[in-house]
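Think of the structure tokens as a kind of shorthand, similar to the way a musician reads notation: each symbol stands for something richer, in this case the local conformation of the backbone. In the example below we present two proteins back to back. Begin with the first one, reading the sequence and then the tokens, and try to describe in your own words what changes along the chain.
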Amino acid sequence: MNYLLVPKKIGNLTYRIEPSSQIGMRVPVTIFANETMLQKMLNEKTIDQAINVSTLVGVQKEVIVLPDAHQGYGFPVGGVAAMDVDEGVISPGGVGYDINCGVRLLRTNLSEKDVRPKLKELINNLFHSIPTGLSPKEGCVKVTFSELDEVLVNGVQWAVNNGYGTRDDLDTCEEGGKMANADPNKVSDRAHKRGTPQLGSIGSGNHFLEIQKVEKIFDHAAAKTMGILEEGQISVLIHCGSRGLGHQVCTDYLHICKEAYTKYGISLPDRQLACVPNSSSEGDWYRKAMHSAMNFAWCNRQIISHYTRRSFETIFGQSESDLEMNLVYDVAHNIAKVEEHKIDGQKKPVLVHRKGATRSYPAGRKEIPKKYQKIGQPIFIPGSMGTASWVLLGHPNSMKISFGSTVHGAGRLMSRTRSYKEYNYKDVLEELERKGIVLMSRTKGGVVEEAPQVYKDVDEVAEISDELKMATKVAKLVPIGVIKG
């Protein structure tokens, strides 16, 4: 950490580093955290990375560091930065490798007492129906290269057209589950090859499918609109992204940007921030490839939802409609989108990079589904196997303080390498069993590196979001069954 640039407390849970022309900062860095979280960020490179982002051409207003932030590739994970659409840059590192890693929630009309007697059978069925892990041989759905291109263009619409969902699913996805102006021709053959066998699969790391129960409801009116009606109600949280395809898109365009940025006269404090003007040909190519990967991710989660519904139907002997397995919402992380925000008192279009952050739009925004126009956008913070997940609600204050954004998870406390030194599979499994959580995982290592203790306190992260009114608490969900890679 550059100790000449010490964050100063400017308000409740809010710190700021003012611009330093000496190192080329164009805007301040604003950090939302408590003192413990801030110290953790200072001890690694999280704040240094945010300062580096503040030097980028065309960066607007301020760089945001959220409570779940930790060191990432170039940009901090848990960072938000908006760029001038015409004069600013676009950066693959500011989006990340897992493009549109996101979370969706399905609600049911089942209660815990309905599910407990069949929980192990249900988890077993899900585990054998939905491929998990770093490199599953195939996903739930086999597609050809040409069919994959249709997925990359149409997203969730492709899934619905092919019998893997309903119109209601489209209506409750961010962007309707489809980014316009996607172009599969800007996605490399290598990315195609990696994505073709993985449609309808859950990756490794912190990706999972959890059967959860509603532990507590904080905002009953908002929860009712979402279909969350009572404590003990069963829901399903799905957390995954664009798999090998998205990873390859990021890899390809990082290489392109590293080769190209100097010809545009861009100077960088860290080559991991490799970027190009948003208006450049390379910027246009990356945007079209990124949109393609976003559409793949939405379709991937939709296919997983379809097979989740089939598993419930099989185990409980009722139809999807009888079980009322409705999609509450699907939110995206790791994206860059053009949005309208107030800059210097004037509304203007800006390119918002959200890396490890999620949109948090309030009531009345045209971008959110009609169903939620009166309350605001649902938001989900996933936990990790043994910890809670949270349902939040977009709040008007987020538009003032964080470019309409909030946290996307708890955020890691320790590296995966250190987790192996601190924990072992047997101990983690026994802890989950004591909590009544049924776990099936493709690997023991995947369990150890995602042990609940390696993350920040997700309840604390949700509380900070609520206190700052970036997004407010609706309900707390706790896991009873998990499948993961």
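Once you have a description of the first chain, move to the second and do the same.
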Amino acid sequence: MNIIEEFDFIPEELASDEARKVLALSPEFFVRRGNSFSTLGAAAYLDGLYEYFERAEKKNRVIDENFDALLRLTRNKLSKIMGREVIDLPMAARVGFHIFDSRSLGKQADWHIDETYKNVSWCEPFGMPFSFTVALALPHGDGGLNYKESFDEDAEIKYQPYRVGKLYVSSGLFPHQIANHTPATDDQPRVTLQGHGAVLSFSGKVAVYF
């Protein structure tokens, strides 16, 4: 199995429509990390504990009102991939969005691993954490993820290109970095649906969140 799996998901036209809907909601964005990008939705790896729950309660309504169909498609696709029912994690943020534009010019994302499961409250014991991304818009169709298959400093840097409308799933538990080989601009932004999840040990369901 590849460290990052690519799956067919939605047509490019639908992805573009969803990206436009995200951008139209800019007054609802949270500005992140020195004004280098934004999110639509609370994010467990960016917000403090109490701030996260407060923001999630407010922005979940916005996301439900505008992206219910997209999130249902996402849960259904993940359910087929994993062979389990997929639900939203209770008391957590809905799956949300990253938005990169001209503010990111000249800036580079941090290398990290996804340990967001440590920052949310779980309704039951869990295992098999994972992360997923759907590319909705990429600057001139270009963008992806840099990653390493080991934690050695000298490990080879590899590149996973993203394609608009595709779903990418991985454990997230390896060093990786958002890659914008073609810089995002206001006219050519990078918009992605982002989420995390894990398997609930008692019910066997998969719970997803941002």
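Compare your description with these statements about the second chain. The chain has one domain: 4-209.
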